[in-house]
Amino acid sequence: MAPAGSGKSMLLRSWVEDAGLSDRVGWVSVERDEYDAQRFWVAVVNALRATASAKSIARLEPSPEFDGRAVVNRLLSDLGSVDGSVILVIDDLHELTSREALDQLELLLARRPPALRVVLATRNDPHLGLHRLRVTGQLTELRLTDLRFTLDETRQLLHSAGIQLADPSIARLHERAEGWAAGLRLAALSLARHPDPERFVTEFSGNERTVADYLLIEVLDRQPVAVRQLLLRTSLVERVNGPLADALTGSSGSEDILLDLERGNAFVTAIDADRTWFRYHHLFSDLLQLQLRREHPELVARLHLVAAAWHEKRGYVVDAIRHFEAAEDWSGAVRMLADHAFSLILEGQLLTSAVLVDAFPPEMRSDPQLAWVIAGIKLMQSSLDDAAAYLAIAERHAAAVRDERVPSFELGVATVRLAVDARRGDYGSVTGQAQALLDRPHGDTEHWLALNNDARAMALMNLGIVEYWSHQLDDARRHLGEALELAHRIGRPRIEIICLAHLGLGEITRSIDRQRELAAAAVAVADEHGWASDPVATMALASMGAADIMQGRFAEARQWVARAESALRPGLDPSTELLVTFLVGMLDAGEGRLRAAIEAFRSAAGMQARLVTLHVVTLLAHQFTIHAQLRLPDLDGARATLELLSADERAEGEIVIAEADLRLCEGDAAGALALLAPVLTGTTRVLGNYTMIQARIIEALAHDRLTNSAAATAAIEHALDLAEPDAMVFPFVLTAPRRLVESHPRHDTRHAALLSDILDVLAGSSRAPRARVAELSEELTESELRVLRFLPSNLSAPEIAAELYVSTSTVKTHMRHIYAKLDAHGRSAAVQRARELGLLARPTR
In sequence order, which residues have a C-beta less than 8 Å from that of residue 221 and are 6 or more positions away? Predict the structure, then answer.
């Protein structure tokens, strides 16, 4: 810890180079006034990933919903398995103004694994709880007194610069500079050109800032005109390269000047390996800007506009907007922000966008273009009401938008309005809005195409989501598929993840294997971009959990649902929150905690109040609440739940089935069958095979109560027929008593293996986790898996062939392949190996 210009950065770079540590050091230079915790941690992770020993650290990319603590926890986990040691250098830590980022850095330091060494360079003591490390002897500190030049080091500095001074003058210079590295370096630069070095030393005096001001004037006054002009005019930018400097100075050859300054002056530093981009020491930049304002105040705004245009032309959006704002060209800043709002948000620069907005004067917030941008930011920050309020402002002042800006303005407003209504579950509004947005004519400018593509991808995604939740599955699959293709083409991985996750959930009524495949693809994209614990991954994680719940793999599902809960940000998306809460209830029910399940189902159903249109999962939550109450048994509670529902809700197939279950529990088996009739004949719509399985189970129970054993057996066999393709077990959990399933004749069923799995789960077991492909020499095909499920039964190969409607030779061929792939000699060994791999459930009875 030492003041500006004490040589902290130079010392660290020299140490890294001299010790040969370059391949093990991750270097992070904190940007000036860094308020963005996400940007800081992305820089940290990328710096560590660039080292030779820590390449296994998971990638991290910006995300609108950033969780810094989760990033640090994952980083700590990754660091625990690195080979060798790695050093993290954080330079200019005093510039980190984010309290959130500092708290997270304190966590990293407190739980730092042995493989990680951390070096902090700062002007002042950071609030990081370093006293704990100090007490335990884990902290080495270098402060101002350690970094001050000694008299002998001052002499060596002057000698290396070719400056001849008498010893008394060297001692006087050292004393007056108090060993301050920057002061001595600036003094050496001035002395090299001063006609009377001894007089210079005599006049040299003052504290740090005074010395810097004095020497800055001395340096500037003695520089060639071109160098002086370049230093002053480029002081307004955070980083500079040759072409940018040429634009700001109106001349050429700036890159050579910058390279010369970098070689001869510690206050100009290259920030890339090719030495094409440079930055000035913060103190140096401050003083140059002060001098520019003193000498040429009329140039300041003009230079900012030149910098804005230069950055805009090359796609440096944030830098361009900042320079427009610095020049108080609010119309240019609004134009840039509106043109790039979607890309900034989708690329994870939500906080940056919010800070850019905060720089506008308060009266600008009624500007219609700025208002819709603010609405989009508020939407991502979980404030639906604020988003709607700013949309209203934008629409109220729409007449103020210039003609050439109207198309992009209307596109922005329509896209945010669509997203707001989708979050609120206003499905009727979304459908019409989305179609109108998709039918808009396309522009042909680069910015319009980018804005339009982002808007189209989001519109298709939101349309597909609301179609899915309102059970318009074919339309949902089409629109989500189109959104997925467009998002992949334009490089919008966040939209890809959301589309894949919802497409997966849409497959739960057709193929659980396909559902799991799509959800896993979504999780893989999230992992690839470092978003495994980001809210964008919530739906994909939930979908993985739902697939395992359906197949009775509760232990595995619990892990997925826990991850989904961890990634979930309450209030951000009511539909996602509703689903995750519902899955928690399903797990509780599957594991026998009926009262906890009822509480979770009621909590999920209660979230409907935040949605305009009835959510499909809300209907399931009501249905499952009734089934769970009846299993307790709590018939009065089930009746009360049913009575709270509207007539339209009670007409839905799922609620009809729940009411039939209630009738059955009340002793009215005939009444239960009468209620079920339109469901069983297809007159009343249900959500899919899952619901129909439950209907068949309750039908079987009713026939059993009426002592019609043949009809009961047929109904159970129908239920097993529907469950077999996806090995669905959970439909039996809340509706099928073990007695009924256990009495189903084994010798007269096509589903002996599935029946065994169901009985295991009803006995309190969770099916074993799915086998990992890596544990098999070759993955079993779908046909082989179907044959495998019959191997634990007593059925012969011809009987299995009859069950599967294939030839006996086909079954025998599949059996040979199964034995080979499982490395098993015979049927019993194959069954045992399959159980070990989780391909078959372990018996528990």
Answer: none
Instruction: Give residues with Cβ within 8 angstroms of 179, minimum separation 6.
Output: 148, 149, 150, 154
The predicted structure's pLDDT at residue 204: 66
Residue 641 and residue 629 in contact, taking contact as beta carbons nearer than 8 Å:
yes
What tokens appear for 437 in the block? 């947005």
pLDDT tens per residue, range 179-208 = 777 778 777 877 777 788 888 777 765 444
CA 789 – CA 776 distance, rounded (Å)? 17
Taking the mean position of all CA atoms in its chain, how far away is CA 278? 32
User: Which amino acid does the sequence have at 125?
Assistant: D
SS3 (DSSP) at 118 = strand
Angle between helices 225-233 and 254-264 (to 10 degrees): 90
The sign of the CA dihedral 194, 197, 203, 208 is: positive
Give the integer Cα–Cα distance in Å for 820 and 33. Answer: 64
Contact call for residues 201 and 173 (beta carbons, < 8 A):
yes
Q: Is the dihedral of CA 280, 286, 292, 297 positive or negative?
A: positive
The predicted structure's pLDDT at residue 141: 84
Radius of gyration of the chain (CA): 35
Residue 96 DSSP class: B
How many angstroms separate the first and last alpha carbons of the chain? 67
Q: Which residue has the tokens 């979770």?
A: 600
* Cα–Cα distance for residue pair 484/487, rounded to 1 Å: 5
Distance CA 499, CA 484 (A): 6
- Residue written as token pair 């006034």: 33
pLDDT of residue 843: 46
Q: Which residues does 554 contact at the CB level (< 8 Å), separation at least 6?
A: 548, 587, 590, 591, 766, 767
User: What pLDDT, on a 0 to 100 scale, did the predictor assign at position 15?
Assistant: 87
To the nearest 10°, the Cα dihedral for 821, 826, 829, 831? 70
**Which runs of consecutive H residues, i.e. helices, occur in 763-825?**
782-788, 797-804, 808-821
Chain centroid to CA 694: how far?
37
Q: Is 525 helix (H, G, I), strand (E, B) or coil?
A: helix
Asked whether 453 and 483 are in contact (CB, 8 A), the reply is no
Q: Give the span between the Cα atoms of 18 and 16, in whole angstroms.
A: 6
**Helices (DSSP H) in 178-298: which residue ranges?**
181-191, 197-203, 208-221, 225-233, 242-249, 254-264, 282-295
What distance in Å separates the CA atoms of residue 532 and residue 538, rounded to the nearest whole number?
9
H or E element at residue 834: helix 827-836
Q: Domain 8-143 adopts which CATH fold?
A: Rossmann fold (3.40.50)
* Helix pair angle (538-550, 554-567), 10° resolution: 160
**Which are the contacts of 96, defined by CB distance < 8 A and separation ≥ 6?**
30, 34, 40, 102, 105, 126
pLDDT score of 844: 37
Spell out, as residue ranges, where the chain has pLDDT lower than 50.
Answer: 206-208, 773-774, 842-845
Alpha helices in 424-472, H assignment, sequence order: 427-438, 446-469
- Arch. (CATH architecture) of 773-836: Orthogonal Bundle (1.10)
Backbone angles phi, psi at 7, to 5 degrees: 90, 20
Residues 737, 760: Cα–Cα separation, whole Å: 13
- Asked if omega into 368 is within 30° of 0 (cis), the reply is no
- Which of 463, 445, 462 shows the shortest CA–CA distance to 404? 445
Say which residues have a Cβ less than 8 Å from residue 111's Cβ, sequence separation at least 6: 76
Beta pairing partners, 27: 89
| pTM for this predicted structure | 0.74
Instruction: For residue 813, give every residue at least 6 positions away whose Cβ sits within 8 Å of its Cβ, in sequence order, or none.
Output: none
Which residue blocks in 381-445 are alpha helix, DSSP H? Answer: 384-396, 406-423, 427-438
Using alpha carbons, select from 767, 746, 747 the residue that is nearest to residue 755.
746
Spatial separation of the C-alpha atoms in residues 322 and 237, rounded to whole Å: 10
Helix axes 225-233, 242-249, angle to 10 degrees: 100
